[in-house]
Amino acid sequence: MIEDKIAIEERFVFTSKAQKNVISIIVAGLVLFAIGVAMLIFGGGSHEAAAHGAHAAAGGHHEAYHWSQRLILNFWHNSVFFTGIAVMGIFFVSYNYVAYAGWSAGLLRVPLAFGSFLPYAAVLVIGLFFIGKHDLFHWSHEGISTVGSPNYDPIIAGKSGFLNVPFFVFRLFLYFGLWYLMYHIIRKNALDEDIHGTTAYWHKNTISCAVFLIIFGVTSSTSAWDLVMSVDTHWFSTMFGWYVFASWHVSALAAITLTVVLLKERGYLSIVNENHLHDLGKFMFAFSIFWTYIWFSQFILIFYANLPEETVYFIDRLRGFGNHYTGIFFFNIFINFAFPFLTLMTRESKRSTMFLKIVSIGILIGHWLDFYLMLTPGILKGNSELGILEIGTALIFLGSFIYIVANKLSKSLLIAKNHPMLEESMNHHI
Q1: How far is the C-alpha of 220 from the C-alpha of 179, rounded, in Å?
Q2: Maximum Cα–Cα distance for the chain, whole Å?
């Protein structure tokens, strides 16, 4: 037992070399971002939007397109995507606690550290809303719900009880406030358990995690409506909350798996073995199928009903704006379903660090594109591009997320040494 305790008292060291590597990702992103902005400024400025979705035209007004809208959308897209990975890290920890899962006890500190990104995400999301709400959300325009106004839109007016600026801002503060509060409580209990070593803190965390799951059961859907679905204000789907949840969740599973594998390859997480990796691979495999199930269910119901106010969402993405998003639409299905399904089908692939790294990276890229496809047609119509600016912004966010999470991991033990189910995790075999 003494040898076991020595083996599990690991601390992640965020070395200066590792910090430089992460900062180099951010710098590369900044360079690409600067080039992308320069290309936008000197390559076009502003012009009248070339194409409009049917839902925008219904309002009876014509909008101008300016390159700054693409800039704001890029920040919003990445803020929403990385917010989801951060909060889903807490979600993963919570359902493992509530399910009394023993296999994951030795790696829970990894997803728990994801929650440290939430304060930064809150500043980004709330700040971006105030800076660019009119570019992101059509419903935020003045007079949109006022009868007699030239901007009046009767459909949006009917939703104004929910989609109005004061209530929207209140909900943003509520989401991030509740998520971060629960993250803080769960992490504090976990660290106190390291110090005091009694099961009381594990029981406290089980209750805290159950509370988080109740909160997240509501806010996961409402935040999806607010942050993503409301950019297409005329459109709605009762399955959309589940769809965003599935995309966020499988992205977080990929990030957790990739982080665990990379740490393991660098000599950390000594108690993690190929059986734990197998379970993480099964999670990615299963929830890639779950995402596909939600995607297909939403698509087939809307296709079958053939109601114009619902089908416009898929028409815009499948053949709208001169087939502008058609390639991404079909690639989205391949990279997020066919690729992980075929790659992770065998037992051996789920236990191979090489396969797990490739699939994890593929899933992260795929669901980053999934959020791009959710947001961009409703905001930029046919004026978007997927180029240097988008790649640069993604690298800035990726490097920042890695730096924040790695720094948080270095502040405490990497393995919860007094978790009551740690021995079960150490002897996990499937």
Answers
A1: 10
A2: 77
pTM of the model: 0.94
Q: Where are the beta strands (DSSP E) in 34-91?
A: 46-48, 64-66
For residue 291, give both structure tokens: 């995402």
Spell out the long-range contacts of 366-370 with Cβ–Cβ below 8 A and sequence spacing 24 or more. 366/332, 366/335, 366/336, 366/339, 367/81, 367/247, 367/248, 367/250, 367/251, 367/254, 367/336, 368/81, 368/251, 368/394, 369/328, 369/331, 369/332, 369/335, 370/247, 370/332, 370/336
Which stretches of 137-229 are DSSP H helices? Answer: 154-157, 165-196, 200-227
Q: pLDDT at residue 45 above 80?
A: no
pLDDT in tens, 372-395: 999 999 999 999 999 999 999 999
Compute the average pLDDT of residues 417-430: 92
> What are the sequence ranges of the domains in the chain?
2-426
Q: What is the mean pLDDT of the segment spanning 118-130?
A: 98
Task: State the angle between helix axes of 353-380 and 240-265 in degrees (0 to 180), rounded to the nearest 10.
Answer: 140
d(CA 91, CA 6): 29
